[in-house]
Design a protein that fits this description.
By secondary structure, the protein is an alpha+beta fold. It folds into 3 domains: about 60 residues; about 60 residues; about 150 residues, Heat Shock Protein 90, CATH 3.30.565.10. It is about 55% helix and about 20% strand. It has 8 helices and 9 strands. A 5-stranded mixed β-sheet has the order 2-4-5-9-8. A two-stranded antiparallel ribbon has the order 1-3. The longest helix has about 40 residues.
Length: about 290
């Protein structure tokens, strides 16, 4: 009995020391388990709970740091497009009576495109905030991925009449269990990213490799530079001038971050690369999305 009491006191002292370490901020402090009796099993459960708490706090810390980085970058990066929109509105307001109707219409259309860009940016930020929450769960339902991709390609052909957007699919019907709204956003973002830099063509490929669905989007643009390849899908917000539908604007680079968040939510992979000719010349960019079916 004395031996048992001595062992229990020793474990109690150890537990008290670990609790003090955790309270002081050492989230890696754990109980040392010497044997798996009833007390040992309780200590094991405590360590498991401590692991989960450490993971949650680390996730919250990374999310908060990413949020701070994002706000800091946005405050700097959005000055140019905000100034552009302000200038457009001021021009229309002060010179509306003097401008030809065609010029006035062009300015209003440009202002509308900038407003739509900001609306999309806010939507992207809200989305990233949602998926970054620890309690966020992906909705899962069965749907026809081939049909979804086909509709998005047709929609892109209408939105980008100057770009030839084509689809090559290995199946007319392709059932997939996932979040259809997120997958739709993944497909649309991939096509929009490609169309932003394509010279004339965007190609979307949909195929199945064993138990993995593979979607590849390629374009005939200038391809990725080394910095873009290294940071593709990462929360490194940088300014880049892009042109969509004849409109030049500053892009914050959230598209690939959103794509990475969606593929991660579906236990998939996102890979960016350049298409090369046999002689090594860059033929364009290619983004591959791999989604496990099971």
């Amino acid at each position: 009995l004395a031996v048992v009491l001595f062992s229990l006191r020793a474990r109690a002292r150890q537990a008290d020391a670990v609790m003090k370490e955790l309270s002081a901020g050492n989230l890696k402090a754990r109980l040392q388990i010497t044997k798996m009796d009833e007390v040992g099993q309780t200590m094991f459960s405590f360590n498991k709970m401590a692991d989960e708490i450490e993971h949650l706090i680390e996730h919250l810390r990374k999310t908060e740091n990413a949020r701070k980085d994002l706000l800091r970058e946005l405050a700097h990066d959005l000055r140019t497009p905000v100034a552009s929109l302000k200038s457009l509105i001021e021009t229309v307001s002060m010179r509306a009576d003097q401008l030809p109707k065609e010029k006035l219409r062009d300015l209003l259309e440009l202002a509308m495109k900038e407003a739509e860009y900001f609306e999309g940016l806010v939507d992207d930020l809200l989305f990233l905030g949602r998926v970054g929450e620890p309690k966020y769960k992906t909705k899962v339902e069965n749907f026809d991925l081939a049909d979804l991709v086909s509709l998005e390609v047709d929609s892109a052909s209408t939105r980008y009449p100057e770009i030839e957007v084509t689809l090559q699919s290995s199946a007319d019907v392709l059932e997939y269990d996932g979040d259809p709204s997120l997958i739709k956003r993944l497909v649309r973002n991939s096509i929009e990213n490609a169309a932003s830099f394509a010279r004339a063509k965007v190609m979307f490929y949909l195929e199945v490799e064993k138990d993995v669905i593979v979607m590849r989007v390629s374009d005939d643009g200038p391809g990725f530079d080394a910095t873009s390849l290294a940071s593709f899908g990462q929360r490194k917000y940088s300014r880049a001038m892009t042109e969509v539908g004849g409109t030049k604007r500053i892009s914050i680079g959230l598209g690939s971050v959103i794509m990475k968040s969606i593929t991660d939510a579906h236990r998939g992979d996102l890979i960016a690369a350049n298409r090369l000719s046999p002689s090594g010349d860059v033929l364009g960019a290619e983004v591959t999305m791999r989604l496990p079916r099971a």
